[in-house]
Each structure stands twice: as structure tokens, then as C-alpha cells.
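INFO  loader      accepted 1 record
INFO  loader      residues=145
INFO  predictor   begin
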Amino acid sequence: MAVKGSIISRVLKWISRGVLGLLFLLLTCTIVLHLPWVQSLITDKVSEYFAETTGGEISISGFYFSILNGITIKDLKITDPQDEQILKSHHIKLNPNLWSLLLGKSEIHQLELQGVSGRLTSEKGILNIQFIIDGFTANNREPKT
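INFO  predictor   done
INFO  writer      dumping C-alpha cells
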């Protein structure tokens, strides 16, 4: 009996260490994401990826991330390859369903928009945001080597 109790206590000890380690990692990531230079690095990478993928431009002045409150994007601006403004927003807040994200689905519980202006046009049956759709469609992407 003492051996069983010893094994159980060791297993519980390892599980508790694992949970505490994950919580520490999560807390550390959250703190790091709030550092201005990390936010600048991330927004630069997102802008670069968007430009390479679509030919358009995206600019973001900052973002805030919280596990419980989702992500808030400040001063978002999207322009097309001809430098025409598609979307401008002072504040966008997305609160995704975390459980569905873990299951590989995209669900948004809450979407909050402030100071938004956008332009959606269709010319000859082609939307002015077609460059974004084409850029992120799997069939149009070439594999990186």
C-alpha cells in the first residue's frame, strides 16, 4: 500500500509541476506580448507577410492580447496594390471562442468596431478586395522553398 501511495504522490507531483510550468509559460508569453518592441516586431512581420502575399499594405499602430478578452487592434489601415484605402479603423476587438480554436474552427464570440471606414466596390464583377481573397486562397499560393 505504501508503494501505491508513493507512486500516486509522484504522479501528482509531476502533473502539478507540468500545470504550473504551463501557467508560467502562458503568463510569460502574455507579458512578452505586451512589450512595445515585441508588438512592433510582430506588426512589422504581419505587414511584411500581408504585402508579400497580397501586394497590398497593412499598418497597425499596436495591439493588445488577453486570453480572456481576445485581441484588440489599434489604428488598422489596409490599402490595395494601387494604394487606394480599403479599410481604416481606430479600434477592432475580437473575442474568439477558444474551445473552437482548439478544435480547429474559427468562431468569434464578440466583434467590436470603433471609428471604422471602408470601401467595398465591384467593378466588372470583381471586388476591390479580390487581391486579399486571391492572396490567401490556398490554390494561389506557391510553396516556399
